[in-house]
């Protein structure tokens, strides 16, 4: 099969648009793209709620002092935008969501009974990228992360890492991502890293222990850690063979120390929590780019922005097909009644990668029975039966 770049697919299928008026590296989601985006978010939100996560929402910017305290300003500044002055106070577009989630943790007194304390968010972040490095959805200046931060007791670390790894594997399996590489990113010799040797050793040991007990092959690579801790990265290739990081799991002893986070242990003493940063999708934009290429634009039926194209054979059936489209909800249906032959409209529906095509004429009007043409043709279905089939697929 011919390999197609996601940028061509995005334009052909009406998924996203890059406007020079808005700014390169700042993709605009078109209606179909917004549907795909929401379906992905809804899927993962449900998985996370079942796994004990609570969802939060945080602003797109924060005080510069917040990012100085976190260490981002000193170690990550080249990837951050310049501060904005508001009422003589400096603010910055957030490059990461973790300081905001830490502030939520700090908003109340925590005890061991609250842990693990799992906060999730689809948080949009902004990072400075050189113009020449920007590419479609895979490298952008603004993107949304399926971010979560877990605050936990140190003796809970390995069990929680195992749970996070299982969730990531489940997400990848959902989208038939089986050919991926796992990289354990370790600290290098650079001065960009913060924290004590002891905390780094404990964090690296926890990640290695969990990976050694898993069924995944992995490599260890120095200088691939975050500045605050080691991490697991899940790497996939695009259609041109370039490797991209999607999901990530990071262990962090250092930000809890920098912010002096505490919880009350069972013996009444104050203890320091450990943090896990994790994102199974990673950048939602990049994940969709890889998805489009992985499926060559033909997304699974549950994820397709349009699932059924109804094609009336003549103008006299237009009102009937519009009524049928309403009857077929919650399936995502479009009536293709443009001024073209039936054959050309069928071809257009196929080019748009719409999974099912329903041609409506006199026979269908009289019988109330319909055929869905797709990878597997289904015949003699009532509207109710089609809805039942689509509900099972959607779920």
Task: Describe what is shown at a glance.
This protein has 395 residues and is of the alpha+beta class.
Biggest sheet character? 8 strands, mixed
Q: Which CATH class of the largest domain applies here? A: Alpha Beta
Q: Please provide the count of β strands.
A: 20
With strands numbered from the N-terminus, the spatial order across the biggest sheet is 3-7-8-15-12-11-9-10
CATH topology of the largest domain: BirA Bifunctional Protein, domain 2
Structural class: alpha+beta
Number of structurally distinct domains = 2
Return residue spans where pLDDT drops below 50 for at least 5 consecutive residues.
none
Beta fraction of the residues? Answer: 15-25%
Q: What coarse outline follows from CA principal-axis ratios?
A: elongated
CATH architecture of the largest domain: 2-Layer Sandwich
Give the helix proportion (percent range): 25-40%
CATH superfamily of the largest domain: Bira Bifunctional Protein, Domain 2
Head-to-tail CA distance between termini = 30 Å
GO molecular function: ATP binding; metal ion binding; threonine-tRNA ligase activity
Organism: Candidatus Berkelbacteria bacterium CG03_land_8_20_14_0_80_40_36
Catalytic activity: tRNA(Thr) + L-threonine + ATP = L-threonyl-tRNA(Thr) + AMP + diphosphate + H(+)
EC number: 6.1.1.3
